Amino acid sequence: MTFALTRRTFLTFAFSAAVVAAEEAPVEERYLQLFNTHTRETVKMIFKRGADYDVAALEAFKKVARDHRNGDLHDMDPRLFDQLFDLARAAQLEPHYQIISGYRSPESNDKMSARPGSGVSKKSLHMQGRAMDVRLENCSCAKLRDLALAAKQGGVGYYEKSDFVHLDTGNFRTWVG
User: Fold this and answer.
1) 20 to 30 Å CA-CA from 84: which of 11, 122, 132, 167?
2) Which helix (H) or strand (E) holds 87?
3) How far apart are CA 87 and CA 41, in angstroms?
């Protein structure tokens, strides 16, 4: 007995197989380890499963990225954490970062930007929870800068003397501090 598949039967079978395969495919989990150099706090959590952000992880990241000068908290842009994860992956390293500066309250930013030659923007994205100054463990800041420039996912500032890279979720632009 010969069995011939019609086009409709074949497509139905192929679609069903694809649905089953997609249901069985593992969901990508993204995690970060963030160490605040000022408060000495560390948090390591999965922050995203598939397309869904983990609310508890975002809250923990918000706390570790708070303004260390006055303790003020602000929601952080989750796309920033995606950037950090992607950059570590591009560097083929674990996503273990040191935070030099995360959220910055308007009061802290005003004080910092008032100092002559500080280079701190009066409209810094740090005040919106959309920027971080970081180092990636086992990666030079020059290499991290180069990877961020290639990714073109937001602003990239390179501070060679202070040994950190500024990353943000604004428009792509670059500078040297």
Assistant:
1) 122
2) helix 78-91
3) 22
